[in-house]
Structures are given as C-alpha cells and as structure tokens.
Amino acid sequence: xxxxxxxxxxxxxxxxxxxxxxxxxxxxxxxxxxxxxxxxxxxxxxxxxxxxxxxxxxxxxxxxxxxxxxxxxxxxxxxxxxxxxxxxxxxxxxxxxxxxxxxxxxxxxxxxxxxxxxxxxxxxxxxxxxxxxxxxxxxxxxxxxxxxxxxxxxxxxxxxxxxxxxxxxxxxxxxxxxxxxxxxxxxxxxxxxxxxxxxxxxxxxxxxxxxxxxxxxxxxxxxxxxxxxxxxxxxxxxxxxxxxxxxxxxxxxxxxxxxxxxxxxxxxxxxxxxxxxxxxxxxxxxxxxxxxxxxxxxxxxxxxxxxxxx
Length: 310
Description:
alpha+beta; 10 strands; 12 helices; 310 residues; five-stranded antiparallel beta sheet; 39% helix
C-alpha cells in the first residue's frame, strides 16, 4: 500500500462537534462499497491495467468474498523494474494486510490512516468478508457533509430559548462483548443530554471521554455490562458495572500502557492500555473495585463547576 498525507484531525483534541461525528459514525457509513478486486491467479500486468483504468494505486486480492492479500503501486513498479510483470499476484501480494471492521467507529479509521500513512484500508464484516475500502478522501468528504448538517442543526438550536432543567436524570445502557456496532452509543446519548442542559462544552467533553473509555473497556475486556449515568444539579456520576474476568492488580491496570488485550484486539486498534488512566485523568472523583472472576465497577464523577483541565 502506498503512503499518503494524513488526515489533519486529532481523535482526542479535535473540536467537540468533530469528535461527536467521528465517534458516532461507523466505518461502514463512510467506506466505498464499489470495490475493484483481483484474484490470486491474475497477472501483475492485468492488475496494473485495472489500476490505470480506475485511477487507483492499490488493489485487494480476494478469493470469493474473502480478502487474501493486496498489491500496491510499489509492487507494480518493482515488477516492471525487475521484469516479472507477467507473474501471478499470488507470488508477490502482501498477505499480512491491515484491515478495519465495518462496525468500528470512524475514529479508528482516522487513527489508522494517520499512523500507517497508507492510502486505503480494506474493510471486513464480522464474517471476515471484504465489504469495502476506506480512504482519506472518503473520510474527509463524509466529515464535511456531516459537519455542514451539524452546523445547520446548531444554528436552529440557537434560535430557540433553551428550557432550564434542574431535575435529576438517570440513564442506563447495556454493553455487549465485542459488539463494536453499538460501542459509543451510551456516550453519544449522555453528551446529547448534557448539551440540552447547556453544560459547559469543556465539561461535556471530559464526561464524554470518561464515558467512552469505560464503555469501550466493557466491550473489549468484559463479558458485557451496564453504563449508568446520574445527571445531578452540580455533577454527573458515571457508574460502569461489568461481569467477567475482573482485574487482579488495580494499581497496575491504572498505569498508562498496561493492558491484558490479546493480539486480535490489538490488531483492531484497541488495547492500548489508556482507558482507565484517561478516565481517572478527566474525573474529579474516581473509584474502582474489582473481583477476579466476578467483574469490575468503576465510578467517575465530574462536577459542572470544576476548574480541572483535561
């Protein structure tokens, strides 16, 4: 795959309206579905022709609907230079292909595009079948379109007088192990609820970070759980309760970069070991308790008048 310029968006420090979009949108909402592919028995010359005709610089190699490799423009140039352009793709394709799953949040595509600087990533579904391709062009075009819609929505809201809400409010959402399609739903809903109360955007952002990190932790590391929110007159309390393996050493788990994620989870872009550390960093009050073989409970509190910075 070829190297290209990255996407000038930071998935943690971008404006809140952009962060909302990149965590709400799924990769399947953005990816291109009209994917041009080749087979293992196709020659590199044939693939070169497909690239030239379709103005692309990387071609997935598939067997049926299964992705088995990729040929990049660099592979074609090398074949021309060394005189084996009529050889089969099976002999020269890259087999260890970095892929994204269609139900992942768009934030993971942005992270991958910026980290690896590849021009495109194949996208697969839960059956490991190839369903699309995502490029930086896909991401930028979709974000611009969605941001325009969001600006129009915000302008409409500004024309209305916000109704004060002083009553307490409770919200609760279930999480399911490895269900990336629903991952982020609870965090999106709590942000909407707080914005409707005209809470300081900086405070909302801190709450959103804590919520998202805890929600993703449940999806990746537990057998499932519940995200509970209590919106009070002066604070928000998040209680994340899960069942599963539990944490043997809480102090170790709170260290940045420490993780029990396996290679499959890491290959999907999770398991960096920052979830609990980030949650504690943005919280005004933070507690965690865990029993091995039973589960974990994390409680994060953020005050609306907190002077604390991220």
